[in-house]
Amino acid sequence: EEKARASYEQKLKNVQHSVSKKLLEIALAKKSNLIASADVTTTQELLALAEKVGPHIVALKTHIDIITDFEYEKTIIPLKELSAKHQFLLMEDRKFADIGNTQELQFKSGVFKITDWADFVTSQVIGGFESLDCFNNVGVVAIVGMSSKGTLTTSSYREEALKITLSHPNVIGGVSQSPIPEEILLFTPGVNLADSGDGKGQQYNTPEYVFKTLHSDFIIVGRGIYKSNNPEEAAISYKNEGWNAYIKSLKI
Ligand code: 5IU
Fold first, then answer.
1. pTM listed for this prediction
2. Could you tell me the distance, in angstroms and rounded to a whole number, from the CA of residue 170 to the centre of ligand 1?
3. Residue 48, Cα to own-chain centre: how many angstroms?
4. Taking residues 225-232, what's their average pLDDT?
5. For residue 1, what pLDDT is reported?
6. Ligand 1 pocket, residue 224 CB under 6 Å
7. Which atom of ligand 1 is nearest to the CA of 95?
8. Residue 2 pLDDT class (50, 70, 90 cuts)
């Protein structure tokens, strides 16, 4: 069952998409496979978190529609500056789930104008292959499997979702709690060192488990970092745990 995983260097040689390359380059440069999920609700908290954890992460994952006081100029412009200053990418976890035309409007219009600032976005693939065509200026992380209790992403759903994930040129990887083919990147949320769940259906694993068993490429950590008394220290500890677990998983 246990087999050595592909290294970031090996993946870097094989990936085609520019966003996949950037993520792997940042991972190697920072010795980090950590994506911080910034599930905070004000611009001030978002920017403060980005400033603190920025140096230690490969990407900051946002839910931009939960920011109460969102203003493009006050929220996005400084966030972009922090991403350049600390060298991390912006991952908007929008989880698009509609027909292509509607997803395109949600991606390009409204107040958020995700197309103008996100480096990569998450999308369901339930709308079929062509629903992903509109994301041709960013990378897409396809939702293959969810971390929550009772999710409908059964093995037969995941198998079909993977067909789209592997064949669409805009897709750089998948979110899943199961292993996926090595040619794309695996992003795994539901990672926490202190808790096993949140009482609302979330289920947590450790970095050790996700690298060893799933051969994940990137761990996504939300409350483990932003709810911590010291988010910077927490980010450093998830970064180190994640990196050590990755190194170990190379040697199995
Ligand atoms: N997220 C999950 N599980 C999933 C998918 C997305 O937790 O299967 I798809 C998101 C939700 C939240 C973050 O933004 O990842 C995890 O946050 P916590 O570490 O606070 O649970």
1. 0.98
2. 22
3. 20
4. 98
5. 53
6. yes
7. 9
8. low
Rounded distance between C-alpha atoms, residue 221 and residue 224, angstroms = 6
State the catalytic residue, choosing from 22, 52, 93, 119: 93
pLDDT tens-digit series, residues 97-112: 999 999 999 999 999 9
How confident is the model over 15-38, as a mean pLDDT? 98
The binding site for substrate consists of 39, 61, 147, 202, 222-223
Tell me the CA–centroid distance for residue 190 and ligand 1, in Å: 6
Active site residue 195: no
pLDDT of residue 4: 80
Q: In the annotation, is 98 catalytic?
A: yes
